[in-house]
Amino acid sequence: MMISYIKKFLDELILATLPESTYFHFLSKYYIEKYGPKTPFKGLFQWEEDAIKNYFPKPPGRILVGAAGAGREMISLSNLGYRSSGFEPILISANHAKRVVPKESMLAFKHARYEDFVKFSLKDIEDHAPYDGAIVGWGSLTHVLDPKMHMLILKKFRKLCPSGPILVSFLTKPYTSPKVKLLRKLFSIFKLRTNTDSDSFSFKLGFYHRFTRDEIADLAKSTGSLVCFYEEEKTYPHAVLLPL
User: For residue range 223-244, what is the model confidence (pLDDT) as tens digits?
Assistant: First the structure.
């Protein structure tokens, strides 16, 4: 038991020291196996369905999806009568989404990371703006550690969706286990990628950030939005942001 625990701990520490490109390669492999093209199609989660039903304009409408994976959200949106654009950082998943999302409902799709979305013009996607609603793909904001990038991402979504809702989901409540505390201390000593006490690391998730309710509210306000709905206790933590 102890040997297994130590091995996993060392595996995590080694993975955390890899160069960014190599680290992203290993993280991508996990997400391809867990949520990629070969996994069964699951459709929208109940909390996603509820948010779309209660806060999004009725179809038809145009929805922008970030970190769209293998097309789960976009296929579901098509089934509801929406058209959508999306982008996804993992190439295998992006290519699969391009194949399986119904052509009549897919406005545009790009292989791109959030950094590309913020820094460059994803012309095919931006040509279809303004969007009637936006989805910051399931938990994807949690994988972004830089607080400035959180703000830039939501600002860009708000720019392309100036008058509609933005659904964002994220992890909350930082872990306080002894292993996480030790990892965080080592990351601080070796100046690895974590920035705050809310940043952490696991072998499955890689580096990730856990948000607080106040943090989401401040982010919304700084990006021209307000939080009209917030939930973290009964289901996967998420919020719906409406324009100020």
Answer: 999 999 999 988 999 999 999 9
